[in-house]
Amino acid sequence: MTKSHFLPASAIDTDEMPKLPADGRRHELARATVSMIAERGLEGLRTRDVAARVGLNIATLHYYFATKADLIAGAVEYIVEQSRHVHAPLVYAGTGTALDHLHQEFADARFYQTAHTELWMASHELSLRAFHDPAIARMITTKDAYWHNSVAEILADGVREGIFRADLNAHTATDILLSFFRGVGLVALDTDAFNQACAEIERWLLAASRTNHAPYVSTSMEKAGNPL
Predict the structure, then answer these.
(1) Does 16-84 match 88-224 in CATH topology?
(2) Phi and psi at residue 66, in whole multiples of 5°?
């Protein structure tokens, strides 16, 4: 069974995105960049301001990140790194079924919207910029391809387990799910509306014999995940 990831780890496995080593200052600079992207957007990102935020001069920043593009790549790596380790509390025990893993995807999406908004907002900002910036597009394409495969595996497992509809096209359904995950952060859905949307998605995915299951319900406990 695949493990649920909001932004999968292998998003960083590309030549355009250098690894972020276990170096305190590089980590601080990448984190400050994410924070500034969330606050100001990429248009407002200034390397001098990033350096100042962590108490460094611009020359020291360039020692760790030679160019602004490298700094942005480090920010993407930071987002991916956090997504590997920072999740909503598990919504299931043991290995879980495909439906449990889908519920975890829902929980993680809500968790990032409510408890880690900087990561969520910076990720959206980078995704939007990808339409106009080929370098960022390559980073986002790699990330999204792995995310797509991860969710598609959950759905394919569910079909094999008899949980999801036998006629479900896992890859097409994944396109729809990822569109929901991306879009839900751009509208102000309260908890009830989010739960209703998730319930509708489940009804669409589930096999007829499984329609009496208990649907996913978002709770305030999703704010209690692992800290950054």
Answers:
(1) no
(2) -65, -35
